[in-house]
Amino acid sequence: MTAPKPSWARKCGEQKARELGYDSFPIDPFEIARGEGIELSPKKPDQIGVSGGIVFFGDDVGIFYSTDIKSLGFQRFTVAHELGHYFLKGHPEAILKIGAAHVSRAGFTEGGQAIEIEADHFASGLLLPTTLVRRHLADEPIGLEGIEALADVSHCSLTASAIRTAECSPYPVAIVVSRGDEVRYAFMSDGFKQLGALTYLRKGDALPDTLTRRFNASATNVASGMRACEETNLNCWFNGDRRIALDEQVVGLGSYGFTLTVLSSDNLPDDPDEVEDEEAQLIESYTPKFARGR
Ligand SMILES: [Zn+2]
Fold first, then answer.
1. Which InterPro entries does this UniProt record tie to the protein (predicted)?
2. Which CATH class name applies to 6-127?
3. Alpha carbon distance 76, 264 (integer Å)
4. What spacing in Å lies between the alpha carbon of 126 and ligand 1's midpoint?
5. Phi-psi category of 137—alpha, beta or left, where left has phi over 0 and alpha has psi -120 to 50?
6. 86-113 tens-digit pLDDT
7. Per-domain residue ranges for the chain?
8. Cα of 91 to ligand 1 centre, how many Å?
């Protein structure tokens, strides 16, 4: 199997949004599909875990998306993912090789097929292009409020918006998604990585003794979307060599049992203007399933 090319796929998504004239949020994957003459059908899937799929039949193309999860952000991300299979070079051929239809499973990409990983990155580039994300974040408060405003304006999930914020934010920020006392995945912006010699958090790492860990000890906090904020420091989270004060903002993501933590500060300098999203690091434990949910 060929290795996935996530940054290539994300760039293709961004380029497609630009090409179609989207210069502001929200970017509508349903409209893009209709513009391509693709038939869209909402569908209750026969199998559990199926988020959507694409069917190539001669010149006709159809996309279906699961309505099991009511969230509009989830459905939009699913349609954008299927558009990735339609637009990305080599994807239709790869799908036709194994049959005319392809079914996508939310969360299936964890250590999964290259085309699934690429389609997810195409979707995040299409719906949340770097230029628009940076422009939006520059006008919003630093941290969770700005990410929530981005999710609102882009009609994307809070986690998808948080991941893209960490990938291309104009200010230093890290985001951590956790469950119980474990890290699920974490991203740092380029500016954040430059704050010191940091230890990267990986899937399965124990959460440090922080507000997030205490917050997660109560299932109700997480399930009912409670929020909390406290001052923390870089050293405590990432073993940095400097004690830089950070705001730790925490919000419960609901019934899946996940928590989003945003680490940032009003007192840190902005990143240089240069966008170096090429270097944005894809943490191996990235689980798009949760990016699609809330
Ligand atoms: Zn797929």
1. IrrE_HExxH, Rad_response_metalloprotease
2. mainly alpha
3. 28
4. 15
5. alpha
6. 999 999 999 998 887 888 876 545 455 8
7. 6-127, 130-292
8. 9
